[in-house]
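Database export, one record per block. Field names are fixed; values are copied verbatim from the stored entry.
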Amino acid sequence: MPTPKAPTQATNEALAYQYGGNHKTGWLAYLPEHWLPYVQLARLSPPAGLFLVYFPHSFGLIYAAIRQQASPSEVAYAGILLFGGSFFVSNAIHIWNDIVDAPLDAKVERTRHRPIPRGAVSSSAALIFTASQTLGAALFLPMLGGDAIENVIFSAPGFVAWLYYPYAKQHTYWTQAVLGVCLSWGIVIGALSLGVKPYSLRTGKIDIPLLLLFSASTMWTMIYDSVYGFQDLKDDLEAGIYSMPVLFKFNIKRVFWILVVFIAATLAGIGGQDEMGMMYYGITVGGTTACLGLMVAYVDLSSSESCWWWFSKGFWYAGGSIIGGLLAEYTSRVFAI
């Protein structure tokens, strides 16, 4: 069984720069010094965290646009609202995660220089900051249209999941599944923006295709975040942090392959339920399966550099395939191509 390769100092610095909450170059260099820790807390640079949150919202939005035959202007307006809401959600959840994780982050090389562990921001100041960002996200709910009360009801499970997520690392090895539920709840909000509800409060009917899309997104997250998590495996084992990499270690690729098969099946199931065309099957089903299959086959889980490279590709390319196929289907229906 392979063992994790100890990252070099240069590797640790690069990984901290990429998503470690310690980035201070580029446009951040022009900010007042006392602003910097708060921008780092919110992971505003690089903005990878924002797109982790926004992509599932986009899945739900475009899928609902197909179902509702929404006009491009309606889709664009909803997309702008969802991006604004995602901005505040991303800020809030990253700050909250750092508040709860601070004692654990201090034990992990890649994260020990984040603002709270290094003492640049107090936990109380960070709590006020995350509360302000949560309020900012909540202000977008009434703008989504439809019944404002239902919007709040359907957003509540996502809020509760995000509250719990950082504690999951202390309670369950299935942390990546919890994160998948958190992020994929954005699909519900995205679909809700165009009037597609996951569950009818009046009839009790569950929207099966939307549930399948939610499931596929959750499993996709489990794969790419587990690959990401292998960067910290050695430190996580020593610190007692729970995760799928800690549970399965280097046997996890078997789990990945099962997830890839189920992702392909659920995406194909959506196509069957909604009578999608060949572009959807080729791009969303085929493209996503190919991207994730390549990642699982070729990532070297003992190498931090390989894990980072494949994590980013597994996110952008697979996520882009899901969006691309849905957009192609929407375009073909709306413009009768």
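Remark 1: Confidence is low (pLDDT under 50) at residues 6-10.
Remark 2: The domain at 9-334 is CATH 1.10.357.140 (Tetracycline Repressor; domain 2).
End of record.
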